[in-house]
Design brief:
Layout: E1 15-18, H1 24-32, E2 36-39, H2 45-51, E3 57-59, H3 68-73, E4 79-82, H4 92-97, E5 101-104, H5 110-125, H6 128-136, E6 154-158, H7 162-171, E7 177-181, E8 194-195, H8 198-204, E9 207-210, H9 224-229, E10 234-238, H10 247-256, E11 259-264, H11 277-288, E12 292-294, H12 303-324
Parallel strand pairs: 1-2, 1-3, 3-4, 4-5, 6-7, 6-9, 7-8, 9-10, 10-11, 11-12
Length: about 325
């Protein structure tokens, strides 16, 4: 069995530190590979800095930041495993320069994220949360909850990786025109999605959905300048990372009618208990428009995806070990 952290462990097997809440079988899978597994979920970055030098591998979640300083301290570290899609909390190039293997599993929750994005879109276009809340108050309101159909609309997909492709695939039956832009992909047009430029999406789109990783290139990709280049008012979906969208610019655009509605599964700051007054006011103002939906970063958080993200990254790791450490 995996054990809780002990400050003085005996030398012997390579040690894997697991810092996320994971299925028991995930821990057992590493033990079957002859690793000593130390289970320390919810550890802080500060506490990790004090013990990281003891470990040869680490499994992290989005709350752990593998910075250069932490990587430098981890002089035995050979493996960083990040179940899920984002690697914005890992200095990947620096880790790889130290010959540390970095693996994640973005394909594992693509269906969950795509389904959630579609759910957000339908709820936003048809005012379902508002109507449900009105019914709870015994209010029967029809006219102000008049919805908008997806059929015949033009959808712009920004980022055509795992989740962008899954979204497009699942949207086929809605009979919308779909255009996708990806700076690093080409030749991906199919019978249901057209490869496009960013400018073309800004010219055509009624709905824009964002499926980008967070990095220096994509930070605040959706900002006032981007919004102002769009030729017509549009609906915005973001199920990727919060800092890809500049929230205050979205609020301005919603108030001006440049954005007709926004559905956000992610925020720039997702630690609501740390909000200062101005941050609280911004979220309140967004919700008070009646045109914004926010969910708490749960798009990829289904029961099925939660299982898959762990075992997909483990299978990748096991395959790599078998191929490289015979």
């Amino acid at each position: 069995m995996a054990k809780a952290f002990e400050h003085s462990m005996q030398p012997g097997k390579d040690k894997f530190l697991v810092t996320d809440n994971v299925p028991e079988k995930f821990l057992e899978a590493f033990e079957l590979m002859n690793f000593e597994v130390v289970y320390y979920p919810e550890i802080s970055n500060e506490a990790l800095l004090d013990i990281i030098e003891q470990f040869h591998g680490i499994v992290i979640n989005s709350n752990i930041y593998m910075t250069k300083a932490l990587i430098d301290k981890a002089d035995r570290l050979k493996y960083i495993l990040r179940p899920g899609s984002g690697l914005d909390n890992v200095e990947v190039e620096y880790a790889e320069s130290k010959e540390i293997l970095v693996l994640n599993s973005p394909e594992a929750n693509k269906d969950a994220v795509a389904e959630h994005a579609i759910g957000l879109l339908i709820n936003m276009l048809n005012f379902i949360p508002r109507a449900w809340d009105q019914i709870r108050k015994f209010q029967w309101v029809r006219e102000e909850n008049k919805g908008t159909e997806i059929k015949g609309k033009t959808i712009g997909i920004i980022g055509y990786g795992n989740t962008g492709q899954a979204f497009a695939l699942k949207m086929q039956g809605f009979e919308a025109d779909m255009y996708a832009y990806d700076k690093y992909k080409s030749g991906f047009s199919t019978g249901f999605v057209h490869e496009s430029t960013l400018e073309d999406i800004q010219r055509r789109a009624d709905i824009i959905t964002v499926h980008l990783p967070l990095n220096e290139e994509t930070k605040y990709f959706i900002n006032e300048a981007f919004i102002n280049k769009c030729k017509k008012p549009f609906y915005l979906l973001n199920t990727s990372r919060g800092k890809i969208v500049k929230t205050e610019d979205v609020l301005k655009a919603v108030k001006k009618g440049k954005i007709l509605g926004a559905a956000l599964d992610v925020l720039e700051n997702e630690k609501l208990d740390t909000y200062i007054a101005s941050e609280k006011q911004m979220i309140t103002d967004l919700l008070d428009t009646g045109k914004v939906l926010i969910t708490p970063h749960i798009a990829g958080w289904t029961k099925e995806a939660r299982e898959k993200i762990f075992f997909t990254v483990f299978d990748k790791f096991k395959t790599w070990v078998e191929m490289n450490e015979k």
